[in-house]
């Protein structure tokens, strides 16, 4: 059996009964995170522009955070973009030190947006939804982990490229496609996926996620209707691994699907800050240091961030002028940490980046390659921050595992609060609380329709009725 065929067989044969209870619990956490960031991102300018361009047609698939519905592919595109618009969605890790952070794929939003769009057109149980989600994330993460790191280092954004394959796999599972049709869906998806990292810090970066979700829906729907594609697209000489990466490590995907599930080992990190995940260890350190020592910007003469070279290959905006650029700027993340002592949604707006006090502090930040950390590999981001004070003293601290990594996880209370903070941009407090309850109960729901309804604003009582229906399905 070829590799693509083996992946397709795994996807088509996966059942809810195959999922350990811990996988279901972790999947629920990541769905809470994904729907939350979609709610917040639905209010971003990029999402509004895309809606204006698409302008319908109406359909059965709802738009998260809005009282609107459209076709399944269009809903996947819009919701997928919204979920990545704030760069606040989860991030894949790696299984070995030779990897580049698992290519930093954002696996959940493309899969979740695609599945939500399809589920809005049919009667889908919570168990079916969870199973399809796990299948899609597993495939995306294993493909990203296996491909040669050149794929990421030379400029591909794996959320757009490999996220498409994951979304197609999840949709194929949700539609109940057999192994042959699932392999075709993967073949179609591999030709549709795209995304270039030079667009980091622009509206096009989240468009990659939206297109991944859209193309995943399209690929599965086409395959289900008899469309054709190469049955060995992943491993073929002119296929995905060869063309997009120059090769792959078969041991990282063959016999590894679900053994164990990637959501458990090495896991997928959840972001505590709405910025590029490679900045997070440094953000943890600077926030802890200034809070503990009660430091203000006038007391700091210089901040030195030491990390590895691949961090500098991703956080490319050294003198940011927009909120989107600030998300990919270690200099800005250090400045907002010192000046404001927090790094939340409001800190990554254009106005926040252009704050004169922030702009004055940014030149005090120096980012360097730390040779000791460079030698330790790129499996995860190790970072050292040195704060030099105006009184001549200095202090250095090292971060091994950022907050939100499985080794340093956010609590359930943290995750729920993040959801509510994000949802507040699109829903009133009662609606947000009802939406959170609906997502938390999805695995036991007889239909996910109530959950999807709860993710949209509506007349008084609408979300409460949706949550009640979801609760009834779970009982």
Our estimate of the beta-strand percent is: 5-15%
Please give the radius of gyration in angstroms. 21 Å
Which strands sit side by side, in order, in the main sheet? Answer: 6-5-7-8
Report the mean per-residue pLDDT as an integer: 93
What profile does the largest beta sheet have?
4 strands, mixed
Low-confidence stretches: 460-475
- CATH names the topology of the largest domain as 2-methylcitrate dehydratase PrpD
Q: What general form does the structure show?
A: globular
Order of helices and strands: HHHEEHEHHHHHHHEHEHHHHHEHEEHHHH
In angstroms, what separates the terminal alpha carbons?
42 Å
- The CATH architecture designation of the largest domain is Orthogonal Bundle
State the name of the first-level CATH class of the largest domain. Mainly Alpha
Percentage of residues assigned to helices: 40-55%
Number of strands: 8
**Structural class by secondary-structure content:** alpha+beta
Number of separate structural domains = 2
Number of helices: 22
């Amino acid at each position: 059996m070829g590799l693509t065929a083996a992946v397709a067989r795994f996807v088509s044969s996966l059942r809810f009964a195959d999922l350990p209870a811990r996988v279901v619990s972790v999947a629920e956490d990541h769905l809470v995170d994904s729907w939350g960031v979609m709610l917040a991102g639905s209010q971003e300018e990029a999402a509004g522009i895309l809606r204006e361009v698409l302008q319908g047609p109406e359909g059965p698939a709802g738009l998260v955070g809005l009282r609107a519905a459209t076709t399944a592919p269009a809903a996947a595109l819009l919701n997928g973009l919204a979920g990545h618009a704030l760069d606040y969605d989860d991030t894949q890790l790696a299984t070995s030190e030779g990897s580049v952070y698992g290519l930093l794929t954002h696996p959940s939003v493309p899969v979740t947006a695609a599945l939500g769009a399809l589920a809005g057109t049919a009667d889908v149980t919570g168990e079916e939804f969870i199973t399809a989600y796990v299948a899609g994330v597993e495939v995306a993460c294993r493909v990203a982990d296996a491909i040669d790191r050149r794929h990421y280092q030379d400029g591909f954004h794996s959320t757009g490229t490999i996220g498409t394959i994951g979304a197609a796999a999840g949709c194929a599972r949700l539609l109940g496609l057999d192994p042959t049709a699932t392999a075709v869906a993967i073949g179609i998806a591999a030709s549709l996926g795209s995304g270039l990292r030079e667009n980091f810090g622009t509206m096009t970066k989240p468009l990659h996620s939206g297109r991944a979700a859209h193309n995943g829906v399209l690929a599965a729907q086409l395959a289900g209707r008899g469309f054709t594609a190469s049955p060995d697209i992943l491993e073929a000489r002119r296929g995905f691994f060869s063309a997009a990466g120059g090769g792959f490590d078969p041991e990282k995907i063959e016999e590894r699907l679900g053994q164990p599930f990637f959501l458990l080992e090495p896991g997928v990190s959840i972001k505590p800050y709405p910025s590029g995940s490679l900045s997070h260890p440094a953000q943890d350190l600077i926030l802890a240091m200034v809070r503990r020592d009660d430091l203000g910007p006038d007391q700091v003469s210089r901040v030195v961030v030491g990390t590895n070279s691949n961090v500098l290959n991703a956080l490319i905006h050294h003198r940011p002028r927009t909120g989107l650029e600030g998300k990919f700027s270690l200099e800005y993340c250090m400045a907002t940490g010192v000046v404001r002592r927090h790094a939340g949604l409001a800190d990554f707006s254009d106005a926040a980046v252009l704050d004169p006090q922030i702009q004055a502090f940014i030149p005090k930040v120096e980012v360097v390659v730390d040779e000791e950390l460079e030698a330790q590999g790129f499996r995860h981001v190790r970072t050292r921050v040195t704060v030099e004070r105006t009184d001549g003293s200095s202090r250095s601290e090292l971060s091994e595992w950022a907050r939100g990594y499985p080794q340093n996880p956010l609590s359930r209370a943290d995750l729920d609060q993040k959801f509510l903070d994000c949802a507040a941009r699109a829903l009133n407090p009662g609606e947000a609380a009802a939406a959170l309850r609906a997502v938390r109960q999805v695995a036991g729901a007889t239909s996910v329709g109530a959950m999807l309804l709860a993710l949209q604003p509506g007349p008084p009582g609408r979300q409460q009725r949706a949550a009640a229906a979801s609760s009834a399905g779970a009982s």
